[in-house]
Amino acid sequence: MKGDLLPGRELDALVAQKVMKSFVPAGSHPQLHDDAWVDRGDFVWEPPSYSTSIDAAWQVVERVTESCKFNLSMGMFGLYWNAAFYIGTSFETVTATTAPHAICLAALKTVEAR
Fold first, then answer.
1. Residue 69: predicted pLDDT
2. 108 vs 39, 79, 85, 94, CA distance in Å?
3. DSSP character at residue 35
4. Residue 22 and residue 89: Cα distance in Å, rounded?
5. What confidence tens digit (pLDDT) does each residue in 49-90 have?
6. CA 58 from chain center: how many Å?
7. What percent of the chain lies above the pLDDT cut of 90?
8. Which residues contact 114 (CB under 8 A, 6 or more apart)?
9. pTM for this entry
10. pLDDT band with cut points at 50, 70 and 90 for residue 91
């Protein structure tokens, strides 16, 4: 996982595929399908706004904590949010400027480490 993923459609698509296990249409995401975002006529695939909406990000929290038996640890330090999913003493903390962004980065780190 790239540590420099910013909130937005690219991160949302990665979370949709890798964390939420959603179907990501072929050609809809360059990092996932070696192609550019594609408008297929009347259909443009848009992942939920996991990295910018706390409501959508909370779906990520529920998915990771239910399916992986992880717990979420979050806190705000200064202007930044720290987030980590953990089991026992095993965790890696990520830092971001918003809670949804931190949740998404931590979730990706967690599923990629499994």
1. 81
2. 26, 22, 10, 10
3. S
4. 29
5. 999 999 999 999 999 998 778 999 999 999 999 999 998 777
6. 11
7. 51
8. 68
9. 0.81
10. confident
Instruction: Please measure the distance between the N-terminal and C-terminal CA atoms of the chain and give it in whole angstroms.
Output: 13
Q: Is 37 exposed, middle or buried (0-12, 13-18, 19+ CB in 10 A)?
A: middle
- If you average pLDDT over every residue of the chain, what do you get? 82
Block residue for tokens 């550019």: 36
Q: CB under 8 Å to 2, separation ≥6 — which residues? A: none
Contacts of 17 (CB under 8 A, 6+ apart): 24, 29, 32
Residue of 97, 67, 62, 61 whose CA lies nearest to 82: 97
